[in-house]
Amino acid sequence: MKKIPQRMCVSCRKRANKSDLMRVVMMADGQVLIDGTGKKPGRGAYVCKNKDCLNQAIKAHRFERGLKTDISSEVINELLNEANKLCDTSEEQ
To answer: Is residue 31 part of a domain?
Structure first.
């Protein structure tokens, strides 16, 4: 029996399967982006794939704390746009 990795949402603090969460990663060059594969190198922060959790994490600056860096408003807007697409597709399934 294969063990399924668990991660904690930075917003609601619930544990879930890694595949059920969305990963935001800070690359070695300082670039912050959404990791759709979950395999990009760098420091990662996980959030549930729902808009409420995502908005709460952004509002409370939880990505900044989790990634230990400042995130510009441009990157936050980019994350919101990408994440909304991701959340919409996961809610349809």
So the answer is: yes
Print burial letters for 13-32: b (CB count within 10 Å at least 16), e (below 16).
Answer: eeebeeeebbbbbbeeeeeb
Model confidence over 33-72: pLDDT tens digits? 888 888 999 999 999 988 888 889 989 999 999 999 888 8
Q: pTM for the whole thing?
A: 0.84
Q: Tell whether 1 is covered by a domain.
A: no
Reported in sequence order, the residue ranges of 1-93 that DSSP labels E, i.e. its strands, are 6-8, 15-17, 21-26, 32-35, 43-48
CATH at residue 33: 3.30.1230.10
